[in-house]
Specification:
292 residues, Aldehyde Dehydrogenase, Chain A, domain 1, 15% strand, two-stranded parallel ribbon, alpha/beta, globular
């Protein structure tokens, strides 16, 4: 997206880095214009002429070449779909930070407040479906399936969401399309969601571990013990109790703009702001000290 061009350039300059931008073909002209304006402004303020550069050709051969420029590029941060991210991770000799793929679930526990759960799910799915922190999968405790599933299916369909579900979900609403195995690990990036009934929190965590991308997960519950279990056992960059997954964002977290949301563990994890674009350098003034 063109806004990423401005965000990335601003963050990198603030952190003392030069940046090479390479946008997708869908918005190449907008990205070139935005990068050009930022470059002109930076140079006019005395920054080096090459502090902001953009690759003007969308040919993927240029990406392949950049992945091998270890002597010149300190890190590559792919922003885009799964195929781009996997291409970078598998082929780069330059260090990379994996970002973006968000297969996101909300688990509705047996003691959840239904109105809270509905509000959180609709916000997580519908406020901006095409981003990585949007909801994909809803896991519902079997004790509340008969009461909660018809309610949430109606709410989702009223918001133009296509709902897919397991057999138990289908039995409770005629509006549900049968889910396939692929749905449980899908990042929809659109007005689609799938619902699966689980027997308990252990099964919910097991499904999240098996199918999701370690990006963002949430539990709706009034049980302190279950909330703590979910927080500690779910392996993701951001884990919520009784809150929407759409909150995983650099601006919301107080970082200002973000250059991406890291789903790896080192060196950065979660939304990455200016601090995550810096490194460490030890500077020592001596007066003759030696190591004994």
């Amino acid at each position: 997206r063109p806004n990423v061009t401005a965000d990335a350039a601003g963050l990198c300059l603030k952190a003392g880095n030069a940046i090479i931008l390479r946008g997708g073909s869908e918005a190449i002209n907008s990205n070139i214009i935005i990068a050009g304006i930022l470059h002109e402004a930076a140079v006019n303020e005395g920054l080096p002429p090459n502090c902001i550069q953009i690759v003007r050709d969308t040919n993927r051969e240029y990406v392949d070449a950049m992945l091998r420029l270890k002597d010149y590029i300190d890190v590559i941060i792919p922003r885009g779909g799964a195929s781009l991210i996997q291409k970078v991770i598998q082929n780069a000799t330059v260090p990379t930070i994996e970002t973006g793929i968000g297969i996101v679930s909300i688990f509705v526990n047996h003691d959840a407040d239904f109105e809270m759960a509905k509000k959180i799910i609709i916000n997580s799915k519908c406020s901006y479906p095409a981003v990585c922190n949007a909801l994909d999968k809803i896991l519902v405790h079997e004790k509340i399936k008969e009461d909660f599933i018809p309610l949430i299916v109606d709410a989702l369909t009223e918001n133009d969401v296509e709902v897919r579900g397991c057999q138990s979900t289908q039995a409770l609403s005629s509006q549900v399309i049968p889910a396939t195995e692929d749905d449980w690990g899908a990042e929809y990036l659109s007005l689609k969601a799938c619902i699966r009934v689980v027997k308990d929190i252990e099964e919910a965590i097991e499904i999240i571990t098996r199918y999701d991308s370690k990006h963002t997960e949430s539990i709706i519950t009034n049980n302190y013990k279950h909330a703590r279990k979910f927080l500690y056992e779910v392996d993701a960059a951001a884990v919520y109790v009784n809150a929407a997954t759409r909150l995983t964002d650099g601006g919301v977290f107080g970082l200002g703009a973000e250059i991406g949301i890291s789903t790896q563990k080192l060196h950065a994890r979660g939304p990455m702001g200016v601090n995550q674009l810096t490194t460490t350098k030890y500077i020592i003034y001596g007066s003759g000290q030696i190591r004994e």
